[in-house]
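Incident log, structure service

09:12 report received: a user says their structure output differs between two submissions of the same chain.
09:20 pulled the input from the user's history:
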Amino acid sequence: MKSAGITALLYGVLILVGGIVGYTTTGSMASAIAGSVFGLGLIVSAAALLKSKLVGLYLALSLTGVLTIFFSYRFLQTGAWIPGGIMALVSLAALVLLFPALRRQVA
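09:34 re-ran on a clean worker, output below:
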């Protein structure tokens, strides 16, 4: 579960920083709050994954799934690649990298 933990950690830091950037550039308090909650949640899930706790995997997959849906919706709504389209692709990539850990746990 080490690679899943690293994936969740990097993705969590990206989401956290993205929320801060969203706040500083546009003044969006929603970006700051959502980025903090989701980013810290992913960082906590990464810590659990690195300790081989299965709950960390479920948390990381859940948060990443929600963010994938959110950013995909935002991209479809606005048509803007930044941030919606890029983050939808990054979120989808994070899901793809997390799923093998789930398959190993189920098998």
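09:41 both user submissions now match this output. Likely a transient worker issue. Closing.
09:42 reviewer note: The radius of gyration is 14 Å. The helical segments are 2-26, 29-50, 54-78, 81-106.
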